[in-house]
Design brief:
With about 325 residues, the protein is α/β, with parallel strands linked by helices. About 50% of the residues lie in helices and about 10% in strands. The chain has 2 domains: about 30 residues; about 270 residues, 3-Layer(aba) Sandwich (Rossmann fold). It contains 9 helices and 7 strands, in the order αβαβαβαβαβαβαβαα. The chain has a 7-stranded parallel sheet, with helices on both faces. Strand 1, helix 2 and strand 2 form a beta-alpha-beta unit. The chain is globular, with a radius of gyration of 21 Å. The N and C termini lie far apart (about 75 Å).
Length: about 325
């Protein structure tokens, strides 16, 4: 009888935990957007987006402009930055934009680069930093799906620089600009909220042929969680979160759209509605991605490994076929 009661209590506790988790997820996905809280009263609030000329970063720029944010756009291609700026100002003439041209694979701490960054951020009220730049696009296409030992030392350093070093150094530089005292036009005594949003990936679970990249995404998640707790302990109202992204179709990532693969505009709109709901550091910005992540977490590791390997085999074959057609 005693053991029956023990197991019954364990069962009830398990069900309660599952229900609480589901209610928490439902609250985050169904609640209205918290994005407006980063538009500070009486200020022209700016959002800084790295990797803003393509993919999810570009879509987030449009979504933020739609919501009234001025923008600091980062990219390595001046012509692309100018083109997106002109289009944004045609659609949203009230917003202001600035550019920061910099190759994320290079040293952000180089004196002329830092000088340019200081100039771009001078005299603006920054409330959001989105560390979006990253991925494997910094390497030639034929490097994808090659064996780890085939990478050169320079290629590995490039992946580390783009996905870790640039983000870490930029965040260190930006944090003082995001720490805002209470508004002088409000009776509230709390500091005004700001946001650091980093881009994670389901690839952090591990994936063949991109071990360095997946390792960087594991770092991004741990870094974001640690920095989030530090900001809370330091009394800074700077919410640090990491979006766990699956796949999203964009001009630079051509894949077939489906239940698990939205286009970048749909993903950006969904993700920006989710951020800032609480202090949780790890956030899924798209409900089907949350379902996929949850399934991976609860299934046996042997099963998830098999699924990842099979998926990569299929992608590798498609990539090989695509490279062959380009060469012919």
């Amino acid at each position: 009888m005693i053991w029956e009661r023990v197991f019954a209590c364990i069962g009830v506790a398990t069900v309660v935990c599952i229900l609480v988790n589901l209610l928490s997820v439902a609250y985050k996905f169904l609640h209205r957007s918290r994005l407006p809280k980063y538009l500070h009263d009486g200020k022209e609030s700016y959002a800084f987006i790295t990797g803003a000329t393509d993919g999810v970063g570009r879509s987030m720029a449009y979504e933020l402009a739609k919501n009234g944010f001025n923008l600091v756009l980062h990219g390595r291609n001046c012509e692309k930055l100018q083109a997106i700026t002109e289009d944004l100002q045609d659609q949203y003439p009230a917003i202001k934009t600035r550019h920061f041209v910099c190759d994320a694979s290079k040293d952000l701490l180089e004196s002329s680069t830092l000088s340019g960054l200081r100039k771009v951020l001078q005299d603006i009220h920054l409330t959001i930093l989105i560390n979006n730049v990253g991925g494997m696009g910094c390497l030639p296409p034929d490097c994808l799906f090659q064996a780890y030992e085939a990478y050169t030392g320079e290629q590995i350093d490039t992946v580390l620089n783009v996905n870790i070093r640039f983000m870490v150094q930029l965040t260190r530089f930006i944090i003082p600009l995001l720490d805002h005292p209470p508004s002088t036009t409000s009776k509230k005594t709390k500091r005004q909220p700001s946001l650091i949003l980093n881009m994670g990936s389901v690839a952090a679970h591990g994936s063949p042929y991109v071990s360095v990249y997946t390792g960087t995404k594991g770092f991004v998640a741990a870094f974001s969680n640690s920095l989030s707790m530090e900001m809370q302990m330091e009394g800074k109202d700077i919410n640090v979160q990491v979006l766990i992204l699956g796949e999203a179709r964009s001009g630079s990532h051509i894949v077939k759209e489906g239940f698990l693969i939205p286009n970048s505009q749909v993903y950006a709109r969904s993700a920006l509605k989710r951020i800032g709901a609480d202090r949780d550091a790890i956030v899924s910005g798209y409900f089907p991605h949350w379902i996929a992540m949850t399934m991976v977490q609860i299934m046996p590791e042997s099963v998830s490994r098999r699924l990842f390997i099979d998926a990569v085999k299929e992608k590798k074959a498609a990539h090989k076929k695509r490279m062959a057609s380009m060469a012919s």
